[in-house]
Amino acid sequence: MTQATKTRAYSDHIRAHLTLGLPLIGSHVAQTAIGVTDTVMLGWYNVEALAALVLANTAYMALFLFGSGFAFAVMPLVSSAAEQEDETRVRRVTRMGLWMSVGFALAVLPVLWFSGPLLTALGQDPELAAGAQRYLRIMGWGIIPALAVMVLKSYLSALERTSVQLIVVLGAALANVVVNYALIFGTWGFPELGIRGAAIASLMVQAISVLALAAYAIQQFPSHRLFLRLWRPDWEALREVTTMGVQVGLTVLAEVGLFTLSSILIGLLGTVALAAHGIALQIASISFMVPLGLSNAATVRAGRAFGRGDPEALRAGARAAFSLGVGWAVLAAVLFLVLPEFLVSLYIAPDEPLRAEIVALGRALLLMAAVFQLADATQVNAIALLRGIQDTRAPMWIAAASYWLIGAPAAWGLGIGLGFGAVGIWIGLVTGLSAAAVALTTRFWRRSGAVGNP
Question: What are the structural domain ranges in the chain?
Answer without folding.
Answer: 10-224+232-448
